[in-house]
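Shape matters. As here.
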Amino acid sequence: MSNQDAAPEGNTSPRHLARVIAISVAAAVGGLLFGFDTAVINGAVDSIQAEFGLSASVLGFTVAITLLGCAAGAWFAGGLADKYGRKTVMVIAAILFAVNSAGSAYAFSEWDLMAWRLVGGLAIGIASVIVPGYIAEIAPSKWRGGLASVQQLAITVGIFAALLSDASLASAAGGAGEELWWGLSAWRWMLLVGVIPAVVYGVLALIIPESPQYLIRQGRDGEAARVLSRVSGVRDTDVKTAQIRDSFEQENKAGYRDLRGPVLGLQPILWVGMAIAALQQLVGINAIFYYSTTLWQSVGFSESDSFTTSVITSIINVAMTFVAIFFVDRIGRRKLLLTGSVGMTVGLLAATIAFSQASGSGDNISLSGVWGPTALVGANLFVIFFAATWGPVMWVTLGEMFPNRIRSIALGVATMVNWVFNFIVTLTFPWVSVNLGLWTMYAAFTVFAVLSFFFVKGKLKEYSGHDLEDNTDLIAR
């Protein structure tokens, strides 16, 4: 066997594995902020509405405007990462996270708050692209699925931290709208505490190594070889470096024009990526996490019990993510996604039936008898299957499915689609719930859970165990 034919990745030693886990965790703090900043509004929604006198539609837009920023941040993140490097863009995101948290906490009107939430959205969108892409580029193929799932684990931890922080601050003040410290209401402190993890993320981004793909693209092969050897456990760095460079097609810089293809003007692989990104949101996960406290209050839970229920749901979300980390490289991406689609459908169908039995309308509805527990069990069953499958595995798949040359920009476009559909679901959920009933919204989520099964079964390849450089044949010439 010639040197060129030798497998560049050997068995990852415990030392290399520990190092790549530590670096993946550090990068995934961006995911923690992603989760924290998207969920922290949950406990503040009612107080914001009361303080600024917002209608249901304006409140929905105030919550959802972050997602427009997310879409914009995701769109530009890939190009910025290719031009300035993954680390630099992570630092930019950390600064935006901190500015958003401080600005939102001191907002003096709904328009001011919207502006800061838009800034926060830019940070979240950037992090949602950079983190899975970066981890995919430094991780050995054998462990890439599990390590990339750390991103989703961090998101779930961020959601849990946000909901726990919200509940603790509301309890300390005697209510989210009550004054807590230094003349600030508890809901303002809920938003302000996000400055702390933002600073931590910025520091960690300066410490971790740059992606070898970016270094090779910049002609810094020596630095790339050191990262491949020390972090990824690559034995023959010359062979691996040559493979990565060849995957860039003689270093020609990719642009958005390279996403064009024969299927409705785009590459087929991009359509697949955008579809799974959209389906992950259309099953309704963020409707639960953005509005869970208000949702449970609307069906008879007290404010305190609603906060507690939301925290319990977030704990389930964190715990079940470990299932994906353990199994994603053992049984593959497709099997997990298919299993998740079935489980989500069952949970959503139970919640749909329960909410169809609600009495009252608008904010004055109630679930009597067994229907309250049925809705709670159905919603949490949905969260269990989503957290173990579609939550992390969608990000794993997006991070590895695109060819090296277009990965950053294609990942950015697919992630932008994810945020656009997140925005659509978040914006429509309050209106549909009030005017057509909660059951209507959950019925729509159920339909998309069914569609997700058939899409994965018919269109998604299995990427487990493949090197990133194996995807060069996925671009239509």
The chain has one domain: 14-208+254-469. The chain has a mean pLDDT of 78. The chain has 19 helices and four strands.
